Each structure stands twice: as C-alpha cells, then as structure tokens.
Amino acid sequence: MHDTAIYIGRFQPVHNGHRVLLQRALASARQVIVVLGSAWQARSPKNPFTWQEREAMLRAVLPDADQARVQLLPVRDYYNQAVWVQAVHRAVAPFTAGGARIGLVGHFKDATSSYLSAFPDWELMPVQRQGRIDASAIRDAYLGATPASVRPALAALADEIPASTLAALECFAQTPPYLALQQEWRMLRDYRQAWAAAPWPPVFVTVAAVLRCQDQVLLIGRAHAPGKGLLALPGGFLGPRETLWQSCLRALREQTRCPLPEARLRAALQSVAVFDHPDRSQRGRSVTHTHCFDLEDAPLPVVMPAVPADGDARPLQWTPIAQLAGLEEAFFEDHFHMLDHFLSVTSPPPMLL
Fold it and tell me: DSSP letter at 270?
C-alpha cells in the first residue's frame, strides 16, 4: 500500500479509461493526487475545457466516499520537460510527507507517455490500456457534431464515456465557446489534410518578435483561426528567400508597421531562442525562432495594425509586463511561455532540477 498515488493527465474530456486508472490509484494508496495538465491554456480543439471544468468532470465520477481522499492540482504546460517535472514536484510537495511511499499510475499509450519515465523517485504502477479509444477520438466526434446532435454523434463511443461526462458535453455544446472551437477544429482538420499527401510530415519554420519598451511588450490579436481573437507575438512563417532575421523584420513591419530602422532593432536585440517542443502547435511540427528586443526607456514606437486584403485588421496593444501573468489563458499556443522564457513572468520562476 502506497501513502500517495499520483495520476497525471489532461482529461480532455474524462472517459472510462481515466476512471479505471483513478480507481486503480484509489485502491493502491491512502490518498490520490490528480495532476491536471495543460492548465491555464486558452481553449482549443486539443484543450477545449478549462482545468476547473475537467476537475468537475473528475469529481463527478468519484464515489462520495472517496472524494476526501483525492486532491486535484492544476499544472501548466511549460513545453520544457525538465521545468514541467519541477513544477509537478513543487505542486505535490505540500501533500506528501518526507519518506512517504509514492506511486505513479499510468499506461504507456504512445510517445506522449514518455513523461512517466521522468519521475524515477516514484514507483511506477503501470496499467494496461483501458477501452478502445482515447480522448482525441471523443473530441473529434464531439466537435464534428452540432449543439443538437451531440448524443447521436457520440453514440458509437457511448460505452467509453461516463454519463456525467456526456451530460457535461451536451451542456457545453449550448455555449458560444463550442461553436468557436468547431470553427478551429474544421480549420485545423483541413490544414492537416492539405499536407497529408506529403512524402514526409512537414516541419514548419516560423519567427516571432518580443518587442520590449518601458517595461511593456507589443502584442497582436489574431484575426483568423487558429487562435482567432487570442493574444500573440508578432511573427509568421519563414519566407522562402529570407533569413530568419529578415523574416522577423518583415513580420514586424507587416503586422505592426513598426517604424524602427533595422540598425535600431539590431542594436536592441538581446537574444534569440528556439522553441521546438513537438506538441507546441496543433497545425503540425513547428519550430519558432523568437527574437527578443529591448528598447529600454526609449519613447514607445508608434505602431498601427496592418490591414490585410480581407480588411480584418489585427489589433495591437502595448501591454505592461506586470499584467502578463493575468492574461495567460488569453494567449495563442505557447506564446505566453515564450514571454515567460525571456521575461520570467510566472512566479515563482521555474527552476531546473
């Protein structure tokens, strides 16, 4: 018998496979800690539900007698395994006494399950895969439905979904975020299908710019899917006849009409970092080279949103760095974590093991 069993997952949404693993954890330890991954992410087809909504789904499948034995802890994605492992350790530490026997419950589904090997100080309690589907199949069927046809669309998967989860999905389908997620899902589905005939999976190279001035950073609002309406850094795809530096300058000019000459920007360049986590973009494997500029206490450059051919302008805003932490759930993909890398937005700052 373990003192604590830890179960890590995203639960997007909760299905019967999750419930079996949760039951295994409860049968193996006096207390169970469920780590809710991908917390504080903006809604997306991959992460449609907030951590609070997922907590409610998990609580709904717990017997009343076990409610007090389970702690649910949200942990953000850092797109850096060493930092993420440290964050998980930090989250569970207040609930585990020194010398406690800790077990880690999970099953090796595919390459995304490699995190189970990242906690050698916890005893791994492997469980065979439960059921024939995973949450991605549920999400695809769900987002391909309509608000009135959720139950029929999920009928083939009904034996894999707890009744409480199905009820939650039907309720959520009546809200505006569901319709927005469907638009995102269709766009991403068509985007991936367009590349399906390529002889190998494509790898996209992009650039982004962190432009800092007077302790503020320049952000754009995305005008189109994916991430329509979310905050992002200026940037875009690498041009076929451009260097990374040239693409970064072009993106700044096109999206913000930044008036600063190249020489001024080169003098303000502090560093360049590469963001290449395999799961950072739902469009496919994407590698972003992010340039960080610091204009220090110079006057704020006058910037204006670009107006593309369709007339749908991307709004711009200079945002105080002190306000970024409160905007985490409003950012596209991992752009918040790019800012965190350069500006140490999260508190306490991540510490490597």
Answer: E
Of 6-20, 120-134, 164-178, the one with minimum mean pLDDT is: 120-134
E strands, the chain, are 2-9, 29-39, 70-76, 102-106, 123-126, 203-213, 216-221, 231-232, 235-237, 269-275, 285-294, 316-320
Query: Does 353 have pLDDT greater than 60?
Result: no
Return the pLDDT at 207.
Answer: 98
Number of neighbouring beta carbons within 10 Å of residue 163: 10
Query: Nearest CA to 14 among 110, 144, 116, 135?
Result: 135
Based on the fold, state whether residues 222 and 167 are members of the same structural domain. Answer: no
Domain that holds residue 121: 2-177
In a domain, 122, yes or no: yes
Average pLDDT for 100-127: 84
* pLDDT over threshold 50, residue 350: no
Question: How far apart, in whole angstroms, are the C-alpha atoms of residue 306 and residue 220?
Answer: 10
Which pTM does this prediction carry? 0.91
Tokens standing for residue 236: 């875009």
Residues 187, 225: Cα–Cα separation, whole Å: 7
Strand segments, DSSP code E, in 47-186 are: 70-76, 102-106, 123-126
Mean pLDDT along residues 305-331: 81
Judging by beta carbons within 10 Å of its beta carbon (0-12, 13-18, 19+), is residue 297 exposed, middle or buried?
A: exposed
Encoded amino acid at 36, one letter: L
Whether residue 128 is predicted with pLDDT greater than 80 in this model: the reply is: no
**Counting Cβ atoms within 10 Å, is residue 4 exposed (0-12), middle (13-18) or buried (19+)?**
buried
Of 177, 211, 234, the position where a domain reaches its end is 177
Give pLDDT, residue 184: 96
Residue 193 belongs to some domain of the structure = no
Number of domains into which the chain is organized: 2
Per-residue pLDDT at 307: 57
Tally Cβ neighbours within 10 Å of residue 338.
Answer: 25
